[in-house]
Write a structure and sequence with these properties.
alpha/beta, Rossmann fold, two-stranded parallel sheet
């Protein structure tokens, strides 16, 4: 065990946490600690301090989040607790124990009115409660730990958990046709690719010298309807997929109409590989 880095992953049962677990065996030079909310309440700062005191943690990757975007509109306090207060707790304790903190955030910190890919320094203006709580989490993380790395990502899916891809696969088996919004544009992110990118950042040895905000998503720009059509094509489904405007599919939380992230910086600083969205979708579907 001596000489190995120890990596703590919170939110271990989520999409990204599950993908981190799936690839951990490929990194024998590291010890991995995976915790769920039942193992460690990250909103309890004393519990976090105790956990860190009992483990020599070199990297903490916070994959835990309140991600029910629509539900957050009626549970703002709960969303704020997990997406902001708990993030601040982790950042503060990481700072005390000289642990590199890597936190996962979202494209939802932007308002979706841009027409060019969002760079990390673009003005933020979330349009829903979820985005607002994630933005507050970013602020608290950087306020409590100047060495924090924040990775903003978008349209996350995986062979684990609940997500757009798995929902589409289920509905395409159940229905003869589906309606999918075609006026929300973005970049899908295969959580397995994000997990690999995080490990690339750690392997680079550059994390502590390059704190700040970075964007990560797969390459290629599409809308949700195009994403659904690709799922249909790759699975040879006979289901008809119809494009509709967002106005035909009202949701409690407003969605940004444009969520494309510029990933130049993470590639430049950490030499992170960015796979093409359709290639990654095909890999994921093969696992389902």
């Amino acid at each position: 065990m001596t000489g190995k880095n120890t990596i703590l992953i919170t939110g271990a049962n989520g999409q990204l946490g599950s993908e981190m677990r799936a690839i951990s065996s490929f990194y024998p030079a590291h010890n991995f600690l995976f915790v769920t909310k039942d193992d460690l309440s990250i909103d309890d700062v004393e519990a976090v301090k105790k956990y860190f005191a009992n483990h020599n943690i070199d990297y903490c990757i916070n994959c835990a989040a309140y991600t029910a975007v629509d539900k957050a509109e009626t549970e703002p306090e709960k969303a704020l607790l997990i997406n902001a207060k708990a993030v601040g707790n982790l950042a503060e304790v990481c700072n005390q124990y000289n642990t590199q903190f890597i936190h996962i955030s979202t494209d939802y910190v932007f308002d979706g009115t841009s027409v060019t890919p969002y760079k990390e320094d673009h003005p933020v203006a979330p349009v829903n409660t979820y985005g607002a709580t994630k933005l507050e989490g970013e602020h608290l993380a950087q306020q409590n730990n100047s060495r924090t790395i924040i990775i903003r990502t978008s349209w996350v899916y995986s062979s684990f958990g609940n997500n757009f891809v798995k929902t589409m696969l289920r509905l395409m088996k159940e229905k003869e046709q589906l309606n999918v919004v075609s006026d929300q544009v973005g970049c899908p992110t295969y959580a397995a690719d994000l997990a690999a990118a995080i490990m690339q950042i750690i392997a680079s040895g550059k994390a502590s010298d390059n704190p700040g905000i970075y964007n990560f998503s797969n390459s290629g720009i599409i809308n949700w309807w195009q994403f659904a059509v690709a799922i249909k094509e790759l699975t040879h489904s006979k289901c008809m997929v119809n494009p509709i405007p967002s106005s035909n599919y009202p949701t409690p939380a407003k969605r940004p109409s444009y969520s494309v992230l510029d990933t130049t910086q993470i590639q430049k600083v950490f030499s992170v590989n960015i796979p093409y969205w359709r290639d990654s979708l095909q890999k994921c579907i093969l696992l389902l």
